Amino acid sequence: MFAERKSIRKYKPDPISEEDLRTILEAGRVAPSAKNRQPWEFIVFTGVPKEEVLAKMEKGIEKQKKSLFMPKKFKQGMASADNTLRIMREAPVIILVLNIRHGNPYLPVFAGKRVSEILDTLSIGAAIENMLLAATRLGIGSLWIGNTVYAHKEITDYLGTKHQLAGAIALGYANETPEGRPKKSLDDIVEFRR
Questions:
Q1: Paired strand residues for 94
Q2: 65-90: b or e for each residue (b if 16 or more CB lie within 10 Å)?
Q3: According to the model, what pLDDT value does residue 78 have?
Q4: To the nearest 5 percent, what fractions of the chain are helix, strand and coil?
Q5: Residue 66's closest CA among 57, 78, 55?
Q6: CA–CA separation, 193 vs 131, rounded Å?
Q7: What distance separates the 2 farthest-apart alpha carbons in the chain?
Q8: What pLDDT digit, counting tens, does each position of 110-137 carry?
Q9: What is the pTM of this model?
Q10: What residues form DSSP beta bridges with 171?
Q11: CA-to-CA distance for 121 and 116, rounded, in angstroms?
Q12: CATH of 2-172, one of 3.40.109.10, 3.40.5.10, 3.30.565.10, 3.40.50.2300
């Protein structure tokens, strides 16, 4: 099943049933987490609320494009962010994922807090992957989204939260059949020490 999951960037407008959404969210809820902290919150958007939060994301992206202080590598991702916004608008469901144990990722933190943040981010990655695999099992397409980073303030202000916006997931029935992306071989990434 792992290799069957593909990143879907084109969606049909068909809604996802409440039962299937709950199955996907349950998969995230039961994911393993460091020290069993379960540092996540999932906010599901459809319809008008989805359009509202994506309008805030667009505002943040546009603001970043005009920033004189943005690092060059960060600016290079702006075209990708515009495309991601288009994908999110097409998907019937968007799930925003919050790290409820941490706040603004752009503020400095001391080393002990940074270690905790890293562990919680890894845990959230496990929850997201569980949801992506559950969606695949249900025949629902998905896309793991990190480009919310360009509009962190605008989205968290809209949500009325001080929690860290860890990312998002787009969900919907695929309107494409993408080829698998190239993956490194096991020999390229694994080292056995016996």
A1: 45, 170
A2: eeeeebeeeeeebbeebeebbebbbb
A3: 76
A4: 50, 15, 35
A5: 78
A6: 33
A7: 56
A8: 888 899 999 999 999 999 999 999 999 9
A9: 0.94
A10: 93, 142
A11: 9
A12: 3.40.109.10
> What six digits make up the tokens of 142?
């998905």
* AA identity, residue 93: V
Distance (Å, whole) CA 165 – CA 148: 8
Query: CA 115 → CA 27, 121, 165, distances in Å?
Result: 25, 10, 18
Place of tokens 């890894």: 122
Q: Which amino acid is at 91?
A: A
Q: What residues contact 193, with CB distance under 8 A and at least 6 apart?
A: none
> Which sequence spans correspond to the domains of the chain?
2-172
Distance CA 41, CA 77 (A): 26
pLDDT at 1: 64
Q: Tokens standing for 147? A: 């480009």
